[in-house]
Design a protein that fits this description.
Helix content is 59%, strand content 5%. By secondary structure, the chain is mostly helical. It has one domain: TorD-like (Orthogonal Bundle).
Length: 236
């Protein structure tokens, strides 16, 4: 049976947004699309969250019994396997094999290590290597047009891969026009996530994050089809 990865609401002072990561057969499921972007953002945001890792690694029966935090739920109707669902299963397998400590060490080596070998998580490096400042300026102008500002100096800057994925999720959740979603996707997401995934997959030290890159790549390919189909449908 397929799984849904969800985050329960907590009573913490700083409550996180609820996020369900479904394994959708239909890529035009708006809730699932937003959730997938949010999951990818969470996985690349920083050192992997302990609760998320424990739920990724858990067997379905055990995960369903977990109280609080992340949980895996059984979904009744099993969709046909897709590149995305296969990538998610591969991610869970790697998570179980490596364990939390190894995954955290991998993150530090890949993203926080020596400048000459680490992988940059900033999308301007990949989308506009010849003019990253121009890309970043365009992204900031778009954020301002949406009424969004950087809330804290401690949060990733605007072109961090997690911030870009979060913004795409925000556009979907607020039901912004498909034309606007496609324009943002083509300018800021599609141009950067694929080469970012290429960079990760090229690192011999990447194991867990190679699997995360595989998940992101599969989802982006699914998104290309979903957005283009949705735009065509609106024009008919």
């Amino acid at each position: 049976m397929p799984l849904v990865l969800a985050q329960r609401e907590t009573n913490r002072e700083e409550k996180r947004d609820r996020m369900d990561m479904a394994l959708p057969e239909a890529p035009n499921d708006e809730r699932a699309r937003a959730d997938c972007y949010r999951l990818i953002a969470n996985l690349f945001y920083g050192r992997a969250d302990r609760r998320l890792l424990s739920q990724l690694a858990a067997e379905p029966q055990r995960a369903a019994e977990t109280s609080g935090g992340w949980r895996l739920e059984i979904v009744e109707d099993e969709p046909k396997a897709t590149a995305y669902t296969r990538a998610f299963e591969a991610l869970k397998t790697v998570c179980r094999e490596l364990g939390e400590d190894a995954i955290r060490q991998e993150y530090e080596g890949l993203f926080l290590g020596d400048a000459q070998v680490r992988v940059s998580p900033f999308t301007s490096v990949y989308a506009a290597p010849a003019a990253p400042d121009r890309y970043l300026r365009a992204l900031r102008e778009y954020l301002v047009s949406c009424g969004l500002v950087r809330s804290s100096a401690s949060r990733p800057i605007e072109d961090h891969v997690s911030a870009v994925c979060d913004l795409m999720s925000w556009l979907i959740e607020r039901k912004r026009p498909i034309a606007e979603q496609l324009a943002f996707f083509n300018e800021f997401v599609r141009t950067s996530l694929t080469p970012f995934c290429d960079a990760l997959e090229a690192r011999k030290a990447a194991h867990f994050y190679r699997a995360v890159a595989g998940l992101a790549r599969a989802f982006i390919q699914q998104e290309i089809a979903a957005l283009e189909q949705a735009e065509i449908a609106q024009l008919q």
